């Protein structure tokens, strides 16, 4: 099951951003500006910034998430976002001894489809196990014959074996990762991936991340989400035409706090 949490973020995010903005327009020293900011001024500054679209100021604040129980298929989409940092569980170093997998909801709904899917996962696991064993044996014997000490050969052979055996693992295979994005990149991510046109799994992730960010700072994330929830749809001809539904959904998400 997908699990998402914020494990850290820049301290006092609103104050940092308001100070960055104020510094652009004030002759005062940066440290004096920080001391001179009360909560009301901070909120007003941020509202002004957001209305002006002065977005470089929000780059000073980053959020770090831990994401578990998502597919490698999601990972391929997520890592297309270049303005972000990722650390992902490695299939080169960690043996997928009994891999967990994501079942798409539409496949879950149809018993025959679910059966085919689960059987395929079991076959993939079996192929992975057989290949790992065959490759490990081959590498181990070669490494021993090359004079490598037995304990070193055992671990080196296992690593070399799973490096190739993983090619049979499916996109459905679960992974876990750590992800850091600054707020400007998060705005872009939420705009693209909370949209009804985004694929269901990355949309579910984006919605969970937005809920968590909104809990930390409603004022910074008040306009975050698909473009149609705060203005015109940016999808042009591909617009889903469900602007009202989306607006209601995001009103609910942001009122759930
Ligand atoms: C509904 C949907 C369908 C998609 N379908 C496909 C598909 O079929 N095939 C496919 O390959 N991808 C697809 N994508 C991925 C998409 O093309 C982007 O790669 C992905 O959404 C990352 O967005 P981004 O580049 O804005 O994000 P980031 O990489 O985080 O970049 C953020 C912003 O920085 C700027 N930027 C970053 N790098 C550069 C650069 N090199 N030059 C200039 N500006 C830059 C841009 O303004 C960019 O918006 C799809 C995405 C969505 C949401």
Outline:
This protein is α+β, with helices and mostly antiparallel strands.
Question: How are the SSEs ordered, and which strands pair?
Answer:
Layout: E1 3-9, H1 13-25, H2 30-35, H3 39-52, E2 62-71, H4 72-78, E3 85-88, H5 105-109, H6 111-145, H7 150-165, E4 174-182, H8 183-193, H9 200-216, H10 243-255
Antiparallel strand pairs: 1-2, 2-4, 3-4
Helix pairs in contact: 1-3, 6-7
This protein binds flavin-adenine dinucleotide.
Task: Name the features.
257 residues, alpha+beta, Gyrase A, domain 2, 2 domains, 10 helices, 53% helix, binds flavin-adenine dinucleotide
Structure description:
- The protein contains 10 helices and 4 strands, in the order E-H-H-H-E-H-E-H-H-H-E-H-H-H.
- The mean pLDDT is 94.
- It is flat.
- It has a 4-stranded antiparallel beta sheet.
- Helix 1 (13-25) crosses helix 3 (39-52) and helix 6 (111-145) packs antiparallel against helix 7 (150-165).
- It folds into 2 domains: 3-89 and 174-255, Gyrase A, domain 2 (2-Layer Sandwich); 105-168, no CATH class.
- The chain starts with a strand and ends with a helix.
- The chain has 257 residues and is of the alpha+beta class.
- Bound molecules: flavin-adenine dinucleotide.
- Flavin-adenine dinucleotide (FAD) binds next to helix 8.
